[in-house]
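Hello,

I think I submitted the FE2/S2 (inorganic) cluster job twice by accident. Can you confirm which output corresponds to this input? Input:
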Amino acid sequence: MNAASNNGPPEGEPVSLWVATAGTTDYPVLRGDLEVDVAVIGAGVAGLTAALALKRTGQTVAVIDTARVGTGVTGHTTGKVTSLHRLAYSELARKHGDEAARTYGQANQSAVEHISQLVAEEAIDCDFRRVANYTYAETDDALDLVRVEANLAAGLGLPAAFTTEVPLPFPVKGAVRFDGQAQIHAVKYLQGLARAVGGGGSFVFEQTRAQRIHDGSPAVVDTEHGTVRARDIIVATNVPFGGQGLFYLRCHPHRSYLVAGRVDTPPLDATFISVDEPMRSILTAGVNGTSYVLTGGEGHRVSESGDTAARYRRLAAFAHDRLGVDKIAYRWSTQDGIPLDGLPYAGLMSPTAKHVYVITGLRKWGLSNGTAAALILTDTLSGRENPWASVFNSNRITPAASAGRFMKENVKTAAAILAGKLSGRPSQTDLSPGEGTVIKVNGENTAVYKDADGQVHAVSATCTHMGCTVGFNAADATWDCPCHGSRFTTDGTVIQGPAAKNLPPAPVP
Ligand SMILES: Cc1cc2nc3c(=O)[nH]c(=O)nc-3n(C[C@H](O)[C@H](O)[C@H](O)COP(=O)(O)OP(=O)(O)OC[C@H]3O[C@@H](n4cnc5c(N)ncnc54)[C@H](O)[C@@H]3O)c2cc1C
Ligand code: FES
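Support: Only one job matched these inputs. Its output is below.
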């Protein structure tokens, strides 16, 4: 069936393959007061990697997560563990010079090896597989770009080569190939890291949201039912909650979509991403005895969602037409921070911070970038030099590499703020089950959703970060903020920041 040909709901269960197939964790809620060396907020790849690395240096850690281990962005990833990030080296060398590009490559290649080592040492059953990773070209223009990327990356000491032999089931002109890369089941991997973190004076807590942090000696994390006192705090919540460090101005959230279909063929020893637009990312995986083909793409800045169902349908059409997928089993979307100057952030939260550190801006390659960032902070908090720290420095000033993009992104955000202020409809429209809309109730923009049973739910439509008006994402059934990317469930619970507070309930119209 070719799903692109109809306008109905997209194919597939609306849940990530990785979340659906990993089982769940059951760590306790933090209740009472606790003292450790380092408090880590966020049980994604960045937070858990940092926590385990710190524990291995002999420090005690407490990881707290508002949800369950691995169910954030990392649970919605594609699963490539690689230092080949499409055409990143050409971009970084142009913006920051060859040395910074080399350091970025070394950090990410070391991260690939660190993950491989942890999987072996901690016996983590997470379908880790070595694969070659390809950035492929279908047009002559793209071919020129991959040739340049391959030469540059090889010159930087990375395992890169240009090739015309690309093991895809459709013809392409050539590719950059990185050998010795990998893929993982990201949720199983994080569950394995969490297992290794707990014990010996270190802890993992779930369903525990950090509400406030205080920088001082000790540094303190306040949660609803308890407090963690620590020498240092790492905020690894993907986007720092509550606007700390003003990273929402230095990073813009970018959303992408994935579909996974079952196939009869075994997984390939290769993963792929296209240079040509529309960009497509491809990975094959064997999960619990079943083979899947994942197709990703349709990326956009959060203010430009458009018809999200159509985005899933276009990905499904590609999987059907070009990858031989018969039926889509799962579909999901998530977003990650793209730093204005192209480099991730790992370091102090702000120039004046003393004991509060941050990892963010992982540019949609956080399995490796987040791992590298975690290793940088581990060294910093252990009093050791780290050779990648200056390139990832969270307080760097790079006006030449960021100014143009800063203007472009923040003008778009301002337009989204204005559009949101004008968006509320004057009265309720008839909603079908599964639909949501923003209407005016007593003069207030109100986000109204009708669930599958016909019950109407209403919450404030005013984003708790900085007051933009949220919009309904029909394919994922979420309220999404177009300004800095906060996402909320239909009952108003924060899924992703920078918002730190839920959308409050509103009168049902
Ligand atoms: C569609 C898509 C595909 C991708 N594919 C790849 C890929 O193939 N390879 C790759 O390397 N990268 C990929 N990435 C990027 C990568 O998945 C991310 O960079 C990475 O997973 C981010 O990890 P994280 O630890 O920063 O965030 P998360 O995994 O989101 O972890 C942050 C955690 O913090 C918790 N949290 C948030 N606020 C609070 C709070 N106030 N208190 C307590 N806890 C809180 C959340 O619940 C969450 O669990 C992809 C990104 C996208 C968008
Ligand atoms: S995310 Fe900033 S206003 Fe909503």
